[in-house]
Specification:
By secondary structure, the protein is an alpha+beta fold. Helices cover 59% and strands 21% of the residues. The protein is built from five helices and four strands. The chain has helices spanning 2-41, 80-86, 88-100, 104-108, 110-132; strands spanning 45-48, 53-57, 65-75, 137-147. Strands 1, 2, 3 and 4 form a four-stranded antiparallel β-sheet that branches. Strand 2 (53-57) and strand 3 (65-75) form a beta hairpin. Helix 3 (88-100) runs antiparallel to helix 5 (110-132).
């Protein structure tokens, strides 16, 4: 009798574990489908300035201060990469001008770096609106930010 009860208990445990595993597989399939749908609707691309941008900034010291940054521009439509590549010199010039007008304290502080990033983002979108009639850049990322 004890063997029969223990066998039934083991069979029940096995059945429940198989049932739970099936539910996990179904949940994973549903979540994978949702991720795939999201990826299809959001087709972002990135444009990077090559080579890195190097320029001076306003320094408080006698020594000349410089900043070297790598920038990636995020666009919603991969076709916009051609537009950004065509206007690369204009955009690069605007970024160099913005960085060249910054104070040393702003360049070296974390909050100042974010302000510079926002200013670059706004300026690039304004330039793109003038050139192509619409904002192209979704986000601007500093992937490397070195200063001296």
């Amino acid at each position: 009798m004890k063997k029969l009860v223990s066998t039934l208990v083991m069979l029940c445990c096995f059945a429940f574990s198989v049932y739970a595993a099936d539910e996990k597989v179904e949940e994973k399939q549903v979540s994978d489908e949702k991720v795939a749908e999201k990826q299809v609707t959001e087709d972002y691309a990135y444009y990077g300035f090559e080579p890195d941008i190097v320029t001076n900034y306003i320094s408080n010291r006698k020594k000349l201060g410089f900043v070297k940054i790598s920038i990636e521009l995020m666009v919603k439509n991969p076709d916009d990469l051609v537009i950004l590549e065509h206007h690369d010199p204009l955009l690069r010039s605007a970024i160099v001008e913005i960085l060249g007008n910054q104070s040393e304290d702003k360049v070296k502080s974390l909050s100042g770096r974010e302000e510079i990033r926002r200013e670059c983002y706004k300026t690039l979108n304004l330039l793109m609106e003038k050139e192509v009639g619409r904002s192209v850049v979704v986000n601007l990322l500093f992937t490397k930010y070195l200063y001296d």
